[in-house]
Description:
- The protein has helices at 65-72, 98-102, 120-130, 135-148, 164-176, 194-209, 221-227, and strands at residues 24-34, 40-50, 54-58, 80-85, 88-89, 105-109, 182-186, 213-217, 230-235, 238-243.
- By secondary structure, it is of the alpha/beta class.
- It has two domains: 20-104 and 180-252, Rossmann fold, CATH 3.40.50.300; 115-179, no CATH class.
- Strand 4 (80-85) and strand 5 form a beta hairpin.
- Helix 3 packs across helix 4, helix 4 (135-148) crosses helix 5 (164-176) and helix 5 (164-176) packs parallel to helix 6.
- The N and C termini lie far apart (39 Å).
Amino acid sequence: xxxxxxxxxxxxxAKRGAGGSSNDVITLKNVSxxxxxxxxxxxxxxxxxxxxxxxxxxxxxxxxxxTLIKLLLRELTxxxxxxxxxxxxxxxxxxxxxxKFRRNIGVVFQDFRLLKDRNVYExxxxxxxIIQVPTRExxxxxxxxxxxxxxxGKYKAKPKQLSGGEQQRVALARALVNNPPILLCDEPTGNLxxxxxxxxxxxxxxINKSGTTILVVTHNREIVNAMQKRVITVKKGIIISxxxxxxxxxxx
Length: 252
């Protein structure tokens, strides 16, 4: 595996909200989210994630994990509470500023979400074209990040020609090519076999060591227990455990 080498000098900067700690990139204060049924998906959640942390978020289906990710991306707004991400007051963020805010966050999903009619190079380059990176820089950045994720020789391949593990590597390259300070991963190994799951997690660990803050939502008990990172356990919309070097706990 190649050592991750990304120019940290070109990161997008954010205006820091009043009262935010310079070392906290994610802060939730008494955050609740209720849907039309009235049942709370999250209920009074508070947490802080420091710059450069690697955090697992675990819990049963319906515990509120996906809602949390959507709140951090500003796909949803909370019913109550405060959310700060990379200096942005997410709750009060104006709609026109959401695209700029999201440039600071890379996202990897369980189902890859690749453009099936485009090759590997174009899938990754798409993330740069959205923010109008000059073509000359795209031609330099895309091969560099594909090399990082071990796909330097696959840039002409279409998604259907790749294995599940390779498709997830493309998705990871796309999430990283704009050099975001935060990477959110929603069940990134959910569709992968154990070997490819471990390869993806090793990549995430290397990316984290380069300074990127990483949150991983997962059901993979073996990976969580083996990696010994910070583990936040959510049950019925409430954080029931938050442990450094934690493991996947039984919720019964």
